[in-house]
Design brief:
It is a single chain. This protein is α+β, with helices and mostly antiparallel strands and about 260 residues long. It has nine helices and nine strands. The radius of gyration is 20 Å and the shape is globular. It starts with about 25 loop residues before the first helix and ends in a 5-residue tail after the last helix. The model has no long low-confidence stretch (mean pLDDT about 85).
Length: about 260
């Protein structure tokens, strides 16, 4: 029997009756917020309710909707999401997710609100064809005891051309942790940090600036801009500017 991915066993996942109290007013606020977001942009997103093991809401452009599931059905069981995971990815993601939960519950309750997770993974697309995506998850709500209750999940284009690249980001600091398979846990990233000048070049590129325009703003030459872009690609493993910008977003703009 395969291990469940989205609802894995953990002592603090054992919710009490108090944890299962009526959160309907809070839930309506989160659902309405996501609906407002999807009215302004095409977004593949959904809210996971861990207490009741279901999808609380999914956007019209979500994977769930594209696969024919009713997006506003509040009773999509999380085992259904497990079915989207590509068979060759199942074991790896089970291990990574277990370490995400271990990391999450090792934090004091006030810091659990600050956890964001991202990874590239393969899912079953149309006609069960494997599709590589980037999956992000951020905490929306905890129970009164500090257990995971709701997360917002967003799927987008992958950051690399292969599965993996699993990171935990803390939004209250610049801490980023990368999952290292060789040691089986998340390790703080300390080597992939951009200099302030490289970061400035990348931020300007993310705003749609050309190399010539970037050279004008910081007052540096076009050759220096090209040099910094080469350094950025080497440090991040990105093949082009678009991948580097995605890396920057995932790494929460780390600087030296």
């Amino acid at each position: 029997m395969k291990e469940r991915i989205f609802v894995q066993k953990h002592p603090l996942h054992a919710y009490t009756e108090q944890d299962r109290k009526d959160y309907s007013e809070r839930d309506r606020f989160f659902i309405q917020s996501l609906k407002a977001m999807e009215s302004m942009m095409d977004i593949d997103a959904y809210i996971i309710d861990y207490v009741n093991e279901r999808v609380l809401y999914a956007t019209r452009n979500s994977l769930l909707r594209r696969q024919g599931t009713q997006a506003e059905n509040p009773f999509i069981h999380l085992d259904y999401l497990d079915g989207f995971i590509s068979p060759e990815e199942y074991a790896r993601i089970s291990v990574v997710n277990r370490e995400v939960y271990r990391f999450f519950y090792s934090l004091p309750v006030h810091r659990r609100w600050k956890v964001c997770f991202t990874q590239d993974l393969k899912i079953r697309g149309a006609y069960h064809k494997p599709v590589l995506i980037n999956h992000k998850g951020s905490i929306l709500d905890l129970t009164d005891s500090g257990s995971l209750r709701l997360t917002l999940c967003i799927n987008s284009h992958p950051t690399h051309d292969r599965p993996g690249n699993s990171y935990i980001k803390m939004t209250d600091t610049r801490e980023v942790y990368e999952y290292i398979a060789a040691v089986g846990k998340f390790v703080e990233v300390k080597t992939q940090k951009l200099t302030s000048r490289s970061l400035s070049v990348l931020e300007l590129a993310s705003n749609g600036k050309s190399e010539q325009q970037i050279a004008c703003e910081p007052g540096i030459s076009i050759h220096t801009v090209k040099y910094h872009k080469k350094r950025i690609f080497a440090q991040t493993g990105a093949k082009n500017t678009a991948e580097a910008i995605q890396w920057m977003n995932n790494q929460k703009k780390l600087t030296e």
